[in-house]
Amino acid sequence: MIARIWTGFVRESDKDTYYDYLKKTGLDEYASIPGNRGIQVLRRLRDGKCEFTIITLWDSYDAIRTFAGTDFEKAKYYPEDTKFLLQLDPNVKHYEVMEAA
Fold first, then answer.
1. Residue pLDDT, tens place only, 41-95
2. What is the Cα 86 distance to its own chain's centre?
3. Topology of domain 2-86, CATH
C-alpha cells in the first residue's frame, strides 16, 4: 500500500469553508478512484493559519496515476484552490506503508 501526502495552508478564517470545498472536490474524487483505500484529513491551527494535511492510501502507484496522471509526484489542484491556499506547493510525498492497524 502507498500513502500519498499533501499539505496546504489557508487563512484561519477560511478553515471551515476550505474543508467544505475539499469535501466537494478532492475528497470526493479520491474516493471515486478504484484502488483508493482510504482518506485522512488532518488540520491544525497555528499563527493565524490553518494547515491541512491529507493522507490518501492506495493499492498501487498505478491507482495513484489514475487520480493524478502520469506525473503523479506533482500535486493536483482544483480551480478554486488559489482562492484559499496561501501557496501552491508543486509536489506531494509518497511512502510505502509498512504497517497499518
1. 999 999 999 999 999 999 999 999 999 999 999 999 998 999 999 999 999 999 9
2. 15
3. Alpha-Beta Plaits (3.30.70)
CA distance 64 to 66: 5
What sign results for the dihedral spanned by CA atoms 33, 36, 90, 26? positive
pTM above 0.90, yes or no: yes
DSSP-derived letter for residue 78 is -
Place of cell 470545498: 21
What's the Cα-to-Cα distance from 98 to each of 2, 11, 63, rounded to whole Å?
9, 34, 18
Domain spans of the chain, in order of start: 2-86
In sequence order, which residues have a C-beta less than 8 Å from that of residue 72 and are 6 or more positions away? 61, 64, 65, 94
